[in-house]
Amino acid sequence: MRVGNQDVLLPTTMVGNYPNPRWYDGQAFATVPKGEFIFDAVSREAFEDAIGAIVHDQESAGLDVICDGKVYGGDSPYGTILYYYLERMKGYRLSGPPIGLPIYSTLYSPTCVGEIEREHPFHLAQLRAVRKATDRPVKVSYTGLGVIAAATNNLYYKDTKEVALGLAKAFNEDFKELGDNGCDIIQLDEFVWPYGMGDWEIEALNAAVSGVDCQFWVHTCWGNYSGTPAYYPDETNTEFGAFVLDKRASDAPAPERAQAIFPHVLDADIHALNYEVGRTGPDDLKPLFDNNWNKPFVAGVIDVKSTITETADEVADRIRQVLEYVPAERLGLSTDCGLINLPRMIAQPKLRALVDGAAIVRAELEK
Questions:
Q1: Which pLDDT score, from 0 to 100, does residue 126 have?
Q2: Which residues pair with 73 in a beta bridge?
Q3: Is there a cis peptide before residue 263, judged by omega within 30 degrees of 0?
Q4: Of 206, 208, 267, 345, which is the most exposed, with the fewest CB atoms less than 10 Å away?
């Protein structure tokens, strides 16, 4: 699989969120400023040290592609991955009703009150900190355009599609800045695509990535808020108003969440698609085969919702299952989702299990 400017057999990486060092969270300096660390040397040093520690965990595990870990600052990872961007753009007011999306309704829906424009860089500081800490290929993760557009309380544009295209223009500016500064891979985390895709998601994505000198991967997320699966609202459950999307028999057919992104995603100008396999099993891979997916696929083979660390042999078995659907030359390997809900003392060994399992299968392929 092509990673940056080299071909790597079964390249390994993690999806995105990684547990911050505990000394960093909850401190006054655990805040990324809008713009640059110009006057606050303490915050900059702490920020770079935190990312350096996360990079060290990945390098010591042996990952081929190093991630930024989504160090945005603050103590609410699922809030910051949304509000962080809006604080750096014009056109939004950071208040509104609860988000009208399953499981994310505990967060408020930011309100669009004017034309969307990028005002401050989104992830240049993260890229520079990771580049300072490693010479391996670097991947920086962004919250997906579909997520932000769907979560927006829109009082300005005609419809959600126009919101998404406004966001696409702002993100395109940021993507170009990262590409010009040596980012190898940009990953978009889309956790609303499995609920069904309309007529604007791919158009907005393609507008955002246009003209950017960088690889683009999309992580389609099955849900990891507070360590739980995603769910659909269910009117039959009056107590909680929802049922768990993943509650199905092990021999059940491929679920609707994987089918929902096809055939739309076939038109996406991306280099790789990624979603989990480790916890849910290989059924979700059937839509890849059925829809003739011919681009690289990065399979999540580490269960981030379990505190039990897989053995290398268990990971190797999962990889072999994926190879029944995706050829080795087009396959990458990752964690199922972000590791943010796990203690760091468990997250790091899981990265090692990923690398060791990949090594077993590589050796088999190279015979």
A1: 95
A2: 31
A3: yes
A4: 345
Q: Does domain 2-69+122-144+166-230+255-365 have CATH number 3.30.1950.10?
A: no
Instruction: Give pTM, 2 decimals.
Output: 0.91
- Per the CB < 8 A criterion, the answer to whether 55 and 134 are in contact is yes
8 A C-beta contact, residue 326 and residue 297: yes
- CA 7 – CA 302 distance, rounded (Å): 23
Q: Which pLDDT band holds residue 248 (cuts at 50, 70, 90)? A: very low
Angle at 290 between CA 284 and CA 291, to 5 degrees: 100
Would you list the domain boundaries of the chain? Answer: 2-69+122-144+166-230+255-365
What whole-number distance in Å separates Cα of residue 98 and Cα of residue 151? 9
Residues 6 or more apart whose Cβ sits within 8 Å of residue 38: none
Q: Extract the tokens encoding 350.
A: 């899981």
Contact residues for 229 (Cβ-Cβ < 8 A; gap 6+): 222, 223, 244, 245, 246, 247, 305
